[in-house]
Design goal:
Layout (H helix, E strand, L loop, with lengths): L25 E4 L9 H15 L4 E5 L3 H6 L2 E3 L2 H4 L9
Parallel strand pairs: 1-2
Antiparallel strand pairs: 2-3
Protein name: Diphosphate--fructose-6-phosphate 1-phosphotransferase
GO molecular function, one term: 6-phosphofructokinase activity
Keywords: Cytoplasm, Glycolysis, Transferase
Length: 91
């Protein structure tokens, strides 16, 4: 109840390889704690791995860290956004 926007988010389960499905997912990423070297490349690596899982899987970035999570502020991180930050260092 402390983070009301999370109440409607379905639970995520992890299964062994035999039980996985290739249904597209919607996954959010949140970075907090200030600037860090390589932060952009971590998100790009996640994006690339998710595309291997299913090309229709969508990655969202929460804007303003935890505040964006609690207020539902996010941006769709599609390929046109992601690769503008490739090898750009931290975040």
């Amino acid at each position: 109840k402390h983070i009301p926007n999370l109440c409607r988010i379905p639970e995520v389960s992890i299964y062994t390889e035999q039980e996985t499905s290739s249904k597209p997912l919607k996954i959010g990423v949140l970075l907090s704690g200030g600037q860090a070297p390589g932060g952009h490349n971590v998100v790009i690596g996640l994006f690339d791995a998710l595309r291997v899982f299913n090309p229709k899987t969508r990655l969202f970035g929460f804007i303003k860290g935890p505040l964006g999570l609690t207020r539902g502020l996010y941006k769709d991180l599609d390929i046109s956004v992601i690769y503008d930050y490739y090898n750009m260092g931290g975040f």
